[in-house]
Amino acid sequence: MASSGQPRIQWLGRWGFMLAATGSAVGLGNIWKFPYITGEYGGGAFVLVYLACILAVGVPVMMTEIAFGRRGRGSPIDAIRRVVNESGRSSVWSLIGWMAMLCGFMILSFYVVVAGWSFSYLWKMLTGGLAGSSVDDMAAVFSANNANPFILGGWSTLVAVLTMVIVGKGVQEGIEKNVSWMMPGLVLMLVLLIIFGVFSGGFGEAVSFLFSFNAGSLSSEGMLAALGHAFFTLSLASGAILTYGSYLPKGASIGRTTVSVAIADTVVALMAGLAIFPVIFANGMNPGEGPGLIFMSLPLAFQAMPMGTLFGILFFLMLSMAALTSSISMVEATVSWLCDNKGMTRKSASWATGIVLWLISTLAMLSFNLGADWTLAGKHFFDWLDYLTSRWMMPLGGLGMVLLAGFVLKSETFRDELGLAPLPYALWLAMVRYVSPLGILVIFVDALGLYPVSFAVHWPILLAILVIFALIGEALSPRLRQALRSR
């Protein structure tokens, strides 16, 4: 399908896309949240449910986004518009692309502040600025870091500038070249930290915490956590994966590539747990502290351990690179749209986007200091960006994407683009028409806090019944029978 007058730049190979997409998926949440909720909700039992959710929701939605991107060869807005026009549908559907692009930019606007914490702590670790004898001391360091708008704003600005410099160099020279060493470097540092953890004295407890199969502790709440994290961890419905997919060469298998990215994302998250929790257990600390684990407990633990400063530097360097690879992906959709539609050069589009990003992220940064009293309905500007994107825009965008692919567009469009055999294609079609939308609806309703207690307890049973009926209905539909007959 022709996308424009000029051929679109592509990744040099499937490996480049895999590294970039994995870098987008592996962010700060993978480093602390996934290991923590794994141990909290049943260890190995939670991991199995999480993997099932990845297969049922994450992989089908990601395949759909990549297919939209490669078929439309453009930003989320342009790609979706071209694909729906190919099927003779209304261009109004491109509003899903607008929401995805805006969502990614809004996430980045507060994400650069959080990423700034990582860079700030890397600098403190290098210069000895993380001295303290208790978690309270470390909490005071963290509070002081946030209370100073020049310090916090400076690190946020650094993240924004680095992001724009890399993106401004282009897909191959900027993004692909940098993630080609950032992601292997991140994995190498994780391996070194795991080796360090093996000799720290707490490795056995960490393995037990993460992988013991405790089905009794896997509650309905844990299943919801697995489902929600499976959707959000892959950077879905934020424009990043769709835009990256627009650079994917035609011959690359979308199915195999997507599964590889999902596996890599999960493996890195588990490796992070094996790197973090041995240090925590060896020092008798609480593994359930969420963000405080990274910025308060771990620095204290590194101080108490042999060669702790060296491995602390490695840890925060790894954290900073994970944050940077994610921020690169979230701005790419906007830069791509400006280049394609406004005739801007890559560098001009990057810096124009960077200026707007800096202004909005500064407002988010001020929520921690000078603007601490600026609230609307009890939320700061930082909180509103997080709330609108994670609770509304991402679930709605993902839902719109799969419903568009499953019910609105011509079946031939995705059968051709995905290049799957009849049975795998029929399975993907059933997933995007029923299973993935139901999963996203569950995430959406739970995120808004609308579940009655009784429904929260029994939703897996209700969801299973709905899925069974949906699959029976799909099996009887002419569209699926046609898909199975087509070769």
Automatic annotation (TrEMBL):
NCBIfam families: Na_transp. It comes from Halomonas qaidamensis. InterPro entries: Na/ntran_symport (IPR000175), SNS_sf (IPR037272), YocR/YhdH-like (IPR047218). It is found in: Membrane. This is Transporter. It is a multi-pass membrane protein. CDD domains: SLC6sbd_Tyt1-Like. Belongs to the sodium:neurotransmitter symporter (SNF) (TC 2.A.22) family. Pfam families: SNF (PF00209). Its main location: membrane. The chain crosses the membrane at residues 12-32, 44-63, 95-119, 147-167, 179-203, 223-247, 259-281, 293-319, 351-372, 392-411, 423-445, 457-477. Keywords: Membrane, Symport, Transmembrane, Transmembrane helix, Transport. PROSITE patterns: NA_NEUROTRAN_SYMP_1, NA_NEUROTRAN_SYMP_3.
